[in-house]
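Whiteboard transcription, Tuesday session. T.W. wrote the structure tokens on the left side:
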């Protein structure tokens, strides 16, 4: 019996065994045992009942050379006991078996013969002590064909020979669960990584170390502070969010963040707000609004009048023909060139004042800055009027009367402006929440939490309690969430003076946790697994899903869900009212019901009926561009499935990562010891070759730095197994793998299996990879791949050319295994996403006609661009093209450009990084200029 606080785990075999024990002896015999013997070719003669004579049924079938095989079966629905004298004692049962072995039975020919085999079958498990009590007797009966089958053995045979009966016994719900669990399979991954059939993942798989937090929160450990006490004001519209953040910080760190306290800040605001809202102050505000609008209108009238005076003199026939354009007007012929220039200067001055007025007119309310601008414009108008009066000698006679009117208007404007000044001094402005932010207190608290984090991680290896593990990671999740919000708030961040150290890589500062990730998952916390290409995200989730599915309760369900298969390119949602979570749930039902005798609605209802469900969504980054609603949809599942756990995996790039609020766990690169363990496990039967691989890594520093992921370690081991000279860089490894699969392995074996030339196969693979990546997908049907390859690779419309390409596509599948099955619907792709990215990078190197600008703005292309930067001699031209083309805003491409630059030499990194920084600074200036112009 298990303890109350431990969950009762019922596997399929245990469930079938319990069903056996619930049956009557007659039902167990007729519904289970007889069909089990019949499926093996026996003709069964049932003798159950009072007159059975120790034989429940006899089984017969024709033997070889005309001899008949006869079996006697005795069934006892009782648990054998070691106690002597009881009817169910094992000793009594053995005695009955001895008698059955000595008693002849009639054959089909009418003769009698001793049975060839005597079976004793019980639906219970045989007690080891009971068997040991009469072991000698059992051993002596074995040569005479006596066999003992307990319930466990019957279950195994029934599963193997009559699975339909297993389904009938267990019920539809249990069978459906087993079918859903069949989605947990490493087959695609193993194929993509080229594990040979006899290799077991458990031989070389090791739990990966990991760090807590996203890539952005890793910066916490590298952060330096220059804190200060900063005066700050918050507008009423932003106060609620700011207050919530401050309260979270104060609660987490147990410190005061603001002076005065929040209560006093709100009291001070309420007092000022009451004075601002008073009827007398609102009346003043109303008068200011009306008077300021009147002044602006008067200024426009002044500028219009002064412009008219100048234009009347500068151009002739100005008002005679309204159909004439401004460019058709002729300068008054009586004016000299010098006089025309002087009038044009007045015209430009007038236009400048007018432009300033236009920007002022868009202001909704008058602030002190706008009041000052009105005063400046008024002073400009006085100077402008004086300049016009100074040119009265060249103005038309008719201009003198308008000038007098302008002077009167200007004097009235001066009086109104003085009245506006009096009103503004009476006005009480709408208040903000005023405070001081205590930067030193926050910085000290974060530094103390960093120490707590380091100690907690160091002690995790000593913690065995799942509750303690859960509490620690929940605390980590809360800590990182609050710190991320704090750093994202400019006011708090300015008070902290937070800066990230540039001299130490973030990866070196990450606290490494060495414990099985399944212990974290077992806490029930929603988790997001991040990692770079080939870091082992999918393998880790596969291992956990498989482990959990084998050990969970009957009313629990674990589902491994590859998003690239679920959210296929063909999926469409025509109803605009369909929510994100409804789209995901619909796709889940269709995917899980595919190929089964259940409709998608039945599958969803079955999942909802479980007490607890674990959703494991693999590859968010691979579908985010095609289905940008996926993060929202996954979060929505928490509402529909109340008692569920969600685990997702993704690369940690793209702005969508900030919307994932689960506990972030980042898989870390292999240590030297883990690489050695992986290689030893791979070459467990060939330690000499394993030693050569490790020696090559040791003497190749560049390789030692990159072979720190399961994917790259696997490729290196595969190359070594095929006697390929071991490479020294990541692109070299993918290049060697590609050449190996495209024919070099066949050359070593002195065989030829492909018709296409290697160059054709490689070109076709590159084009198809670029096509798939451009559509943000990883697989397509063979028909689509054939059509795309023919269109992209053919040099002409000839049928022979098209046939050549079609053959190449087929050979990329078999025998090359470059294209591998990716979905249950028969779609093909390149296996691991990194293989597809490498081929895309090869295409960028081979086809310089591809416009890189759209790729540089997309996080989906980051991995491709990094590989491309490693494979090309120069990347500076990429920056030059971005700047010289229409894509002048370099900031849009900053993240991917810096990722490319990071792969270059130290001197090149320094030069190009400075270049990017300068362009981004210029972009900021351009944006400001554009804003000012608008």
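and on the right, the sequence the group agreed on:
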């Amino acid at each position: 019996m298990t303890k109350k606080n431990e969950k009762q785990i019922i596997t399929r075999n245990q469930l079938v065994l319990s069903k056996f024990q619930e049956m009557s002896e007659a039902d167990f015999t007729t519904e289970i045992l007889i069909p089990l013997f019949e499926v093996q070719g026996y003709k069964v003669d049932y003798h159950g009942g009072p007159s059975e004579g120790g034989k429940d049924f006899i089984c017969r079938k024709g033997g070889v050379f005309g001899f008949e095989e006869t079996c006697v079966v005795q069934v006892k629905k009782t648990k054998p006991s070691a106690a002597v004298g009881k009817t169910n004692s094992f000793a009594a049962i053995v005695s009955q078996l001895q008698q059955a072995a000595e008693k002849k039975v009639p054959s089909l020919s009418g003769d009698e013969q001793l049975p060839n085999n005597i079976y004793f079958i019980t639906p219970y498990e045989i007690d080891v002590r009971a068997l040991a009590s009469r072991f000698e007797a059992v051993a002596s009966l074995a040569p005479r064909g006596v066999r003992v089958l307990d319930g466990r053995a019957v279950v195994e045979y029934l599963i193997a020979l009559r699975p339909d009966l297993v389904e009938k016994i267990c019920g539809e719900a249990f069978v459906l669960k087993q079918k859903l669990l069949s989605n947990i399979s490493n087959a695609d991954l193993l194929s993509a990584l080229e594990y040979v059939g006899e290799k077991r993942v458990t031989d070389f798989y090791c739990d990966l170390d990991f760090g807590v937090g996203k890539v952005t929160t890793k910066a916490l450990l590298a952060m330096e502070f220059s804190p200060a006490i900063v005066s700050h004001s918050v507008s009423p519209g932003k106060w609620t969010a700011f207050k919530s953040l401050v309260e979270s910080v104060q609660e987490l760190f147990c410190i005061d963040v603001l002076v005065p306290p929040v209560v006093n800040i709100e009291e001070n605001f309420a007092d000022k707000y009451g004075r601002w809202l008073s009827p007398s102050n609102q009346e003043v505000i109303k008068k200011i609004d009306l008077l300021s609008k009147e002044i602006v209108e008067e200024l426009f009238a002044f500028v219009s009048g002064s412009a008219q005076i100048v234009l009347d003199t500068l151009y002739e026939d100005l008002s005679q023909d309204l159909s004439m354009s401004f460019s058709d007007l002729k300068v008054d012929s009586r004016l000299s060139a010098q006089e025309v220039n002087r009038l044009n200067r007045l015209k430009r001055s007038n236009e400048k004042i007018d432009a300033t007025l236009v920007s002022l007119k868009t202001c909704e309310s008058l602030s002190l800055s706008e009041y000052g601008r009105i005063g400046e414009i008024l002073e400009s108008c006085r100077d402008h009027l004086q300049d016009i009066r100074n040119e009265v000698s060249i103005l038309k006679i008719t201009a003198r009367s308008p000038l007098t009117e302008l002077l009167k208007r200007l004097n009235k404007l001066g009086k109104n402006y003085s009245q506006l000044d009096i009103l503004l001094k009476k006005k009480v402005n709408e208040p903000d929440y005023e405070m001081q932010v205590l930067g030193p207190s926050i910085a000290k608290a974060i530094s103390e939490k960093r120490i707590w984090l380091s100690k907690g991680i160091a002690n995790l290896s000593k913690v065995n309690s799942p509750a303690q593990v859960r509490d620690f990671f929940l605390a980590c999740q809360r800590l990182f969430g609050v710190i991320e919000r704090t750093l994202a708030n400019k006011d708090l961040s300015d008070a902290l003076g937070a800066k990230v150290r540039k001299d130490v890589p973030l990866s070196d500062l990450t606290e490494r946790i060495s414990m099985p990730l399944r212990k974290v998952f077992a806490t029930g916390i929603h988790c997001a697994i991040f990692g770079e290409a080939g870091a082992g995200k999918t393998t880790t989730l596969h291992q956990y899903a498989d482990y959990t599915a084998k050990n969970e309760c009957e009313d629990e369900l674990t589902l491994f869900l590859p998003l690239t298969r679920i959210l296929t390119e063909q999926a469409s949602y025509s109803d605009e009212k369909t929510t994100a979570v409804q789209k995901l749930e619909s796709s889940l039902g269709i995917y899980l019901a595919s190929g089964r005798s259940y409709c998608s609605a039945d599958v969803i209802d079955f999942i909802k009926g479980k007490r607890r469900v674990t959703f494991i969504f693999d590859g968010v980054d691979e579908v985010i561009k095609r289905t940008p609603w996926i993060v929202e949809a996954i979060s929505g599942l928490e509402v529909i499935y109340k008692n569920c756990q969600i685990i997702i995996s993704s690369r940690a790039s793209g702005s969508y990562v900030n919307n994932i609020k689960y506990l972030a766990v980042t898989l870390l690169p292999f240590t030297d010891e883990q690489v050695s363990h992986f290689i030893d496990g791979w070459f467990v039967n060939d330690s000499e070759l394993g030693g050569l691989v490790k020696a090559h890594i040791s003497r190749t520093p560049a390789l030692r730095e990159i072979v720190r992921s399961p994917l790259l370690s696997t490729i290196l081991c595969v190359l070594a197994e095929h006697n390929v000279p071991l490479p020294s860089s990541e692109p070299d490894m993918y290049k060697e793998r590609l050449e190996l699969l495209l024919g070099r392995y066949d050359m070593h074996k002195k065989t030829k299996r492909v018709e296409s030339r290697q160059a054709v196969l490689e070109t076709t693979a590159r084009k198809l990879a670029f096509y798939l990546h451009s559509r943000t997908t990883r697989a397509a049907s063979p028909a689509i791949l054939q059509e795309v390859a023919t269109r992209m690779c053919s040099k002409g419309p000839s049928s022979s050319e098209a046939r050549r390409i079609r053959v190449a596509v087929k050979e990329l599948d078999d025998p090359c295994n470059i294209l591998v099955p990716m979905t249950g619907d028969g779609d093909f792709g390149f296996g691991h996403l990194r293989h597809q990215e490498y081929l895309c990078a090869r295409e960028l190197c081979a086809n310089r006609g591809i416009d890189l600008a759209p790729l540089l703005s997309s996080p989906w292309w980051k991995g491709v661009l990094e590989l491309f930067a490693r494979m090309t001699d120069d990347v500076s031209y990429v920056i030059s093209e971005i700047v010289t083309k229409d894509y002048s805003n370099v900031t849009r491409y900053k993240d991917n450009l810096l990722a490319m630059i990071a792969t270059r030499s130290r001197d090149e990194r320094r030069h190009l990084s400075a270049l990017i920084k300068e362009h981004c600074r210029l972009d900021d200036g351009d944006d400001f200029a554009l804003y000012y112009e608008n």
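Someone added at the bottom: Residues 773 and 900 are 18 Å apart (CA to CA).
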